[in-house]
Amino acid sequence: MKSFNIFNSSPLVRPKKLPSKIRTIIFVLEILLVISLLVLILSSNFFQKSKNLWVLFFYSFPAEFLVAIFPHEPILLYFGKFYTPLTVAFVAIAGTVLTEALNYSVFKFVTDTNLFQKIHHRKFVTKIVGLFNKAPFIALLVAGLTPVPFYPFRFLVVMAHYPLAKYILAVFLSRTPRFFLLALLGQAIKIPDYLLLALFTVLIISVNVPFLRKLLKKRKNNKVDVS
Q1: Tens digits of per-residue pLDDT, 42-73?
Q2: How many domains, in total, are found in the chain?
Q3: Distance CA 129, CA 134 (A)
Q4: How far does Cα 100 stand from its chain's mean position?
Q5: DSSP letter string over 12-50?
């Protein structure tokens, strides 16, 4: 009788794919959902000023979606001033695991495209996936608990055909204590709102500036090639 080991990947029986049109509709709806929540959070005074836990829950979607452009740390520090760390952690992780399920679905759609299939079979990508498959669960636990960028692992789990249930379990086990510690810190120090806003701004800049630099460099190179 074979034993079940969550720390290593196992042979996966892939379910039948939904029809292409249905998968495309689901993909578009998932993107629109997160964009709608992002617009609502940025434009609504209620979301910007409220201490309601629903704000924390819905903020998790744009904060954890794909290559996240909004940091979650300042928000957890903020809500830690008003609620117990355990409450904050569980509300945040509830939104996070739902978002990670969306991420898995979205990346699955992308990796099934013909263009990505060509990239997927490149030697460099194959090596990275192989390295991840040596201890996928441990890798996810470490990445989820520490401050290292987590978004590459959202790609890896899909490319490695890692089961969604194991991925969500790893996210829950790693991100919950991280969220708890941040909320606990917010409760203990009670950082002023203006400092949290400054931290929020700094983190956004630090995350997005490298992407903007790459984009500008690419455009510059394209202009040089055309000329």
Answers
A1: 677 776 677 889 889 988 888 888 777 778 88
A2: 1
A3: 9
A4: 6
A5: --PPPPPPHHHHHHHHHHHHHHHHHHHHHHHH-HHHHH-
CA dihedral 35, 36, 39, 43 (to 10 degrees): -170
3 occurs within a structural domain: no
Q: What is the pLDDT of residues 151-202, one digit of tens each?
A: 889 889 988 889 999 999 999 999 999 999 999 999 999 888 888 888 877 8
Alpha carbons 58 and 47: distance in angstroms, whole number? 9
**Residues spanned by the domain of 33:** 20-191
Q: Which residues contact 99 (CB under 8 A, 6 or more apart)?
A: 34, 60, 61, 63, 64, 65
Which residues make Cβ contacts (< 8 Å) with residue 104, sequence separation at least 6? 154, 157, 158, 164, 167
| Residue 224, domain member (yes or no) | no
Q: How many CB atoms lie within 10 A of CB 184?
A: 18
| CA 64 – CA 84 distance, rounded (Å) | 22
Question: What is the Cα–Cα distance from 146 to 125, expressed in whole angstroms?
Answer: 24
Q: State which H helix or E strand residue 113 sits in.
A: none
Question: Which two tokens mark 204?
Answer: 């956004």
87 within some domain: yes
Which of 84-93, 114-123, 150-159 is predicted least confidently? 114-123
Distance (Å, whole) CA 54 – CA 181: 20
SS3 215: helix
In a domain, 24, yes or no: yes
